[in-house]
Specification:
This protein is an alpha+beta fold. The protein contains 9 helices and 9 strands. Strands 3-4-5-2-1-6 form a 6-stranded mixed β-sheet. Strands 7-9-8 form a 3-stranded antiparallel β-sheet. About 25% of the residues are buried.
Length: about 325
């Protein structure tokens, strides 16, 4: 496998020799200084050119051979079954090379330079022939930080989890394992958000970070009387505690891949158990496992003055009706 230096040399050699390419950037994990480098990381590269030059490069793709022997390529903008999600006018080539290197190369119109830098902060400039990039550009993974935690977001997380729970439960009863797995996987995504908040709070506590509040702490006592006039059973009722907002200034990586590093051995084992989905019995165990982990960690968040709504109890009662 080529080294990073060799791959960058190959990319920049082509870009420097090709008049059409005016700006070259690197995105993704290789642009992120907070992520430990390894040889499996992709090279997410963008070339900026005029629309006419992009069309020229698209018409004759032999230039791609410069980057190595390609053993498989995907061109999302040419696909019918899986529609592309890039901005109109952008063109991408996802390439696997014979030496194990992967390069995801995107061609972007020069008119979209401003849009590009406004919407992607995790960027390093490799080549800028016309000084198009913003000055003092610093790559930041802030777009991938753990989402802020508020009472509303906590409640939304609980609501989504137990809404998915009832769907998964129904499909398991029907013995529709593929459909059940769809909902179980969605539940796990919601669980990962909850677990990321737990990690964020523990990290803040360890670093003795301060809480960020939308309403200053000293005013909480003065407005506490408002809570007494509202229905405490209503999870949406105003609660001074709901004014807390926690901001987390770090990322757990794509698909929460670094999350296990922050979990205990037992917690990791329990989380991995939720992936056993091969049959009805395993799917049912997975559902129980996901519920147990979510409930345990949701209760722990309540130590930080968050109110845990009663979705779990109500949904479980509803599911009991189906089993009768």
């Amino acid at each position: 496998m080529r080294s990073e230096e060799e791959v960058f040399y190959t990319i920049l050699e082509f870009a420097n020799a090709t008049k059409a390419v005016r700006l070259v950037t690197l995105e993704g994990s290789r642009a992120n200084s907070h992520i430990k480098k390894d040889r499996f990381q992709d090279y997410d590269i963008s070339f900026f050119a005029t629309p006419s030059d992009i069309e020229m490069l698209k018409t004759d793709e032999r230039w791609l051979m410069h980057f190595g022997e390609c053993v498989m390529m995907q061109k999302p903008e040419s696909m019918e079954l899986f529609p592309p999600d890039l901005r109109e006018g952008w063109l991408s080539y996802l390439m696997l090379f014979s030496d194990g290197v992967r390069i995801d190369l995107t061609l972007i119109p020069l008119d979209d330079v401003g849009f590009y830098f406004a919407h992607d902060k995790l960027v390093r400039v490799l080549l800028d022939k016309d000084n198009l990039a913003p000055n003092r550009l610093v790559a930041s993974d802030s777009d991938f930080w753990i989402p802020p935690l508020t009472q509303r977001s906590f409640e939304d997380c609980c609501n989504e989890f137990y809404w998915l729970y009832h769907n998964a439960f129904k499909e398991i009863i029907r013995d529709e394992i593929l459909s059940a797995n769809f909902y179980l996987n969605a539940m796990r995504e919601t669980l990962l958000i909850l677990l990321s908040w737990r990690v964020g709070l523990k990290t803040m506590k360890n670093k003795k970070c301060l809480k960020h509040r939308n309403i200053a702490h000293q005013t909480l006592d003065s407005i506490k009387t408002l809570q007494d006039t509202l229905d405490s059973k209503n999870p949406n009722a105003h609660n001074p505690k709901n004014s807390l907002t926690y901001h987390f200034h770090f990322s757990l990586g794509k698909h929460s891949k670094f999350l296990p590093q922050y979990l205990s051995k037992k917690s990791r084992k329990n989380l991995y158990k939720s992936f056993h989905l091969g049959a009805k019995k395993e799917a049912k165990k997975s559902l129980k496992c996901l519920d147990r982990i979510f409930h345990k960690n949701a209760k722990k968040l309540c130590k930080y003055d968050f109110t845990y709504p009663h979705y779990r109890r109500n949904v479980k009662r509803w599911c009991e009706i189906l089993e009768q």
